[in-house]
Amino acid sequence: MDTGTTKMIARKEDGIGWMIFNQPDKLNAVSYDMWLAVPRIIADYEADPDVRVIVLAGAGDKAFVSGADISEFEQKRGTVDAIKVYNEAGDHANAALINAAKPTVAMIRGYCIGGGLGIALTTDLRICGDTSTFAVPAAKLGLGYAYGGIKRLADVVGPSFAKEIFYTARQFTAEEARVMGLVNRIVSVAELEAYVRKYAATIAANAPLTVKAAKMAINAAMKDPDRRDLARVQEAVDVCFASDDYKEGRRAFMEKRKPAFKGR
C-alpha cells in the first residue's frame, strides 16, 4: 500500500500486516510524515480480513525506533502552533495503535529509546533480540512526559520499575527489560525475525473473533471501572458463540484436524 512516505513500509504476508519504520540512517527516528502514515496503515490492516496480526519493526539491524527525528524540531516544533500540529499527529498515531482491534506485536531489534519505547508500549506483545537496549532519556533532556505515556509504562512494568526507568534515564539490557515485564520474550538476534514470524503465524491461525474478544476484555480490565464498556465486551463474546468459526472449531476438534478459521 501507499503509506505516503518512503520512510514507512507496509506489506502483507501470510496473515501478517508488517509496519516497518524505515529510516535506518537515523536509527528509525520517527518523523512527522511517519507519524501521519501510522493511522493509514492501521486502518488498512483493520479493514482487511486476511490480516490477522500486525507486527511493528524497524528497518536495518541497529534499532527498532530511537525516538523522534530531532532534525525536524526547528521546522516542525519551533512554535507553539507547530508543536500542537506535530503532537496531534503523534497522538493520532498512538491512538490508532492502542485502539487496534487486531493483535499487535513489536519486533524489537537494537535500540528502543524514548518515543520508540512509547510505540512499543502501544502493542500487545513485545519480543526483542538479546542485544536490544531500552531507555527513556527524558530526564537527561529536560523533557516532560504526558500522563498517558507514563500510565502505559506503569501498567506494563508497575510503578516502581516505571520510576526507575524515568528517574535514572539509563539504558536497560534485554534481560533487565524481561525481568521488568517490559518484553514478553528475548530471542537471539539472529533468530528474531524467524521467531516473530512463527509466533505471529500461531496467533493468525487461531480464531480471530476469539482473539478480538479476549483483547477487548483484557483492555477493559485495565481501565477504571467507570470507563469499562462491558456490554460491548459481552457482545464480542456472543459473536464468537454465534460464529461459523465456533462450529468449525468444534468440528475440527472432533475430527482431530487443524481448524480453518475465517473470522466470521
From TrEMBL:
The keyword Transmembrane does not apply. It is an enzyme of class 4 (lyase). Its EC number is 4.2.1.17. Signal peptide: none annotated. One of its GO terms (molecular function) is enoyl-CoA hydratase activity. The keyword Heme does not apply. SUPFAM superfamilies: ClpP/crotonase. Belongs to the enoyl-CoA hydratase/isomerase family. This is Enoyl-CoA hydratase.
